[in-house]
């Protein structure tokens, strides 16, 4: 049976559910998309802060190698030219703290050298690392030239010891990258997924490592995808939770919600893993999801509004502090007012390291978001404690904070922001197909060969749509090809 002949209910309008719904509707299926909350995006959402008159979110970023993410955004922007853009950057700026003067900067960016050497010149000149540190890092990266491990048993902490990484190399290179991409500590993530990050973003091609930052609050950023789904005929029902799913004698499914009972030929269950486990538990076959095998990893973000710009940087990696990343959201959003959303393999149309856009009336104000990944200690701290610590650390990098006026602030804790890609977790990540005919799973926790990211979630939705149509990889976007010498080295 083809998509065009089926009624499909997708439960959950996070990025996985949106991707599945758009793929199937584009293929002619009649799709109903149910979401229990009044907004889309799943864990990638924004909300109006009740006391601040501001919309806040937990900052999400993407890399150029996230081809399914950019492809989905392109699909939506093709039909809605006003779609919120992505601000792309070629340079990562690492800052070492200084209490009295400007912080020492190390800027890693590609040059004219072919991959995998495209970042070499800037890496060699980075003052955050000694020659011994750089030698250890270079030797470590050679382990990922041909790819990354196919199995996930080894903790990355063991790999760091095995490859004799120096303390400073760990603190100033491996740790900020792993924490920022995998939201975890070394002992809680496998070498497979850490290796994937470094292979895809540092070695495979310059395009793969480009940093993309949504230039609008996340719910607004994803709104064009919702509009695109509706334009394709998807029946989107917000604040409509699925209470239960029951197989019918005809081989289809019955879905009960507080408002109605629906019948469908097939279901894609695109909720979070705990909600999926709840809906699957009453069914006769063994539940393919074991929530006890998954460990949630938290992210804490601190939002600060100042009366003036405290830095001319759009973003930075902050070293040797609890804060790991700074995003200057007021600058990012002003820069991107006229940005486009090209595919990362394209050059024309990029908005990367562009000069500032014409300042708006609020150009002298700064909206800063500070990110603490893997923030288990912060879960037990009060808002006041987290804020006080963050402000002290921010002054170490930007002494001008002392003369600026903090207008308002917010602290957002996401206790279940991602799941940890713990060693040997792959054995417990379920496939998109299930033991039940015409019932499929989507979500970043499923078997995608990606960690807990928006790219992984979108891939899972497209893989579920492919499984439903008996064409498993049909809806997946093409990977960015290796460039330079990596065309010979990559497996």
Brief write-up:
This protein has 491 residues and is of the alpha/beta class.
Question: How are the secondary structure elements laid out?
Answer:
Blueprint: E1 7-11, H1 15-26, E2 30-34, E3 46-49, E4 54-57, E5 62-63, H2 67-79, E6 86-89, E7 92-96, E8 104-108, H3 120-124, H4 131-141, H5 156-162, H6 167-182, H7 191-203, E9 211-214, H8 218-231, E10 235-237, E11 244-247, E12 253-256, E13 261-264, E14 266-269, H9 273-280, E15 296-306, E16 315-318, E17 325-328, H10 329-335, E18 366-373, H11 376-379, H12 383-397, E19 406-419, E20 439-441, H13 454-468, H14 486-489
Parallel strand pairs: 1-2, 1-14, 2-10, 7-16, 14-20
Antiparallel strand pairs: 3-4, 5-9, 6-9, 7-8, 11-12, 12-13, 15-18, 15-19, 16-17, 17-18
Helix pairs in contact: 1-8, 1-13, 2-8, 2-13, 4-6
């Amino acid at each position: 049976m083809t998509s065009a002949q089926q009624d499909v209910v997708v439960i959950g309008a996070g990025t996985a559910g949106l991707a599945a719904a758009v793929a199937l509707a584009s293929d002619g299926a009649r799709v109903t998309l149910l979401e229990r909350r009044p907004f889309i995006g799943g864990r990638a959402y924004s909300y109006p802060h009740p006391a601040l008159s501001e919309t806040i979110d937990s900052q999400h970023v993407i890399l150029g190698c996230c081809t399914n993410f950019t492809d989905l955004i392109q699909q939506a922007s093709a039909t809605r030219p006003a779609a919120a853009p992505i601000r792309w950057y070629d340079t990562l700026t690492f800052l070492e703290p200084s209490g009295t003067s400007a912080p020492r900067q190390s800027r890693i960016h590609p040059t004219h050298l072919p991959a995998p050497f495209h970042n070499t010149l800037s890496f060699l000149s980075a003052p955050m690392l000694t020659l011994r540190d750089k030698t250890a890092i270079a030797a470590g990266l050679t382990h990922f030239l041909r790819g990354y491990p196919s199995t996930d048993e080894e903790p990355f902490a063991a790999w760091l010891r095995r490859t004799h990484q120096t303390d400073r190399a760990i603190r100033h290179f491996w740790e900020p990258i792993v924490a920022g991409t995998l939201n975890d500590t070394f002992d809680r993530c496998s070498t497979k997924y850490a290796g994937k990050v470094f292979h895809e973003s540092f070695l495979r091609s310059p395009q793969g490592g480009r940093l993309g930052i949504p230039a609008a609050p996340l719910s607004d950023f994803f709104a064009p995808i919702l509009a695109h789904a509706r334009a394709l005929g998807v029946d989107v029902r917000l604040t409509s939770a699925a209470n239960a799913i029951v197989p019918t004698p005809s081989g289809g499914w019955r879905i009960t919600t507080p408002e109605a009972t629906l019948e469908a030929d097939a279901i894609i269950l695109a909720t979070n893993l705990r909600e999926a486990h709840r809906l699957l538990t009453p069914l006769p076959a063994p539940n393919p999801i074991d929530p006890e095998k998954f460990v949630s990893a938290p992210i804490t973000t601190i939002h600060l509004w100042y009366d003036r710009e405290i830095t001319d940087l759009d973003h930075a990696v902050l070293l040797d502090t609890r804060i790991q990343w700074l995003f200057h959201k007021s600058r990012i959003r002003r820069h991107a007012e006229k940005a486009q959303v090209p595919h990362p393999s394209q050059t024309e149309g990029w908005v990367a390291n562009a000069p500032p856009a014409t300042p708006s009336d609020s150009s002298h104000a700064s909206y800063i978001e500070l990110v603490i990944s893997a923030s288990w200690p912060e879960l037990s701290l009060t808002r006041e404690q987290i804020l006080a610590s963050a402000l002290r650390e921010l002054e170490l990098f930007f002494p001008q904070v002392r003369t600026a006026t903090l207008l308002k602030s917010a602290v957002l804790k996401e206790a279940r922001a991602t799941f940890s890609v713990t060693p040997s977790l792959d054995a417990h990540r379920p496939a998109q197909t299930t033991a039940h005919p015409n019932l499929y799973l989507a979500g970043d926790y499923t078997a995608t060969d990606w960690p807990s990211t928006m790219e992984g979630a979108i891939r899972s939705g497209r893989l579920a749509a492919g499984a439903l149509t008996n064409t498993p990889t049909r809806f997946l976007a093409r990977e960015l090809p290796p460039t330079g010498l990596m065309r010979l080295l990559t497996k």
